[in-house]
C-alpha cells in the first residue's frame, strides 16, 4: 500500500484518475488470471472424451473414453436421480441385439444403460481401474446415480464382480446371466495370467486376491442383492463352479441372493435368458434403489 501511495504522490490532478485505474488493474491482474486459469475449474474433465465408433444394437451414444470404446443408451426421460445399469462385457459385438428386450424395458422405466470396453481383462486390476474411472465420469460429469445396478453376462461377471468387491458401497445390486464368477473355472488360470501381468504360477498363488468367489464378504456386509440365472447344463461356465458356488458362499456370509437354475439350460442364446420378466423387474428396482427410489 505504501508503494501505491508513493506512486500516486507525484501524479498531477489531470492524470490522477488514469494512474489510479492502471494501478488497480495491475494489482488485480493476478487474481483475474487465477480465476480464469484451468486450475481454478475443478470440474473440468481430466479424461479424454471423443466420439466413439462402437456399433450399438439400438440408438445410443458411442464414446471413446481415454481410448476405450464405451457407450451410453439413455431414456427419453430419465427417472429421478438418473438411475442406470452397468452392462458387461462391453466388447466389439456386445451388447448385442439379444439384450434389446431388457434394454427397452430399462429405458421405458427411465433407466439408462452404460458400459466400457476393457478388453479381455478377466477382472484384472487394470480393468478394475478403468471401470472405476468410467463410473466416476458418469457420476460426476454426466449426473448419473452414484450406485448402479450391475448386469453381467457371461465373462462380464469377472469384470463387474472384481470391481464390485472393492466398491460395495457403490453397488445397488448385481444381476447375472450365466455369469463367470470363478477364474479357475473360466478362462482358467493359465489363460487369465497374461491379463494380470503374471505367470500362471504367480496368479495361482494369489488367486484369492482376485477371484470373485473368494472376495464376497464386502458385498455381503453391504447386503447387496444378487439375482443370477444359470443353466444346469452349462459346459462353458459350469453352474456348480460359478453361480452355484457363489450363491453358497454368499448365503453363508449373510448376503441376499436368488439363484434361478434353468433346467437343461446351456451357455447359449435361448431367449429366456434375455427376456426374463424377473430379471427386468429386479434390475429396474435395484437401479432406482441406487438413488433412493424404491
UniProtKB/TrEMBL annotation:
Transmembrane spans: none
Molecular function terms from GO: hydrolase activity
Signal peptide: 1-42
Record has Transmembrane as a keyword: no
Family matches, as SUPFAM superfamilies: alpha/beta-Hydrolases
Sequence ranges assigned to domain Peptidase S9 prolyl oligopeptidase catalytic in this UniProt record: 150-279
Superkingdom of the organism of origin: Bacteria
UniProt keyword list: Hydrolase, Signal
Protein name: Alpha/beta hydrolase family protein
Species in which this protein is naturally found: Haloferula helveola
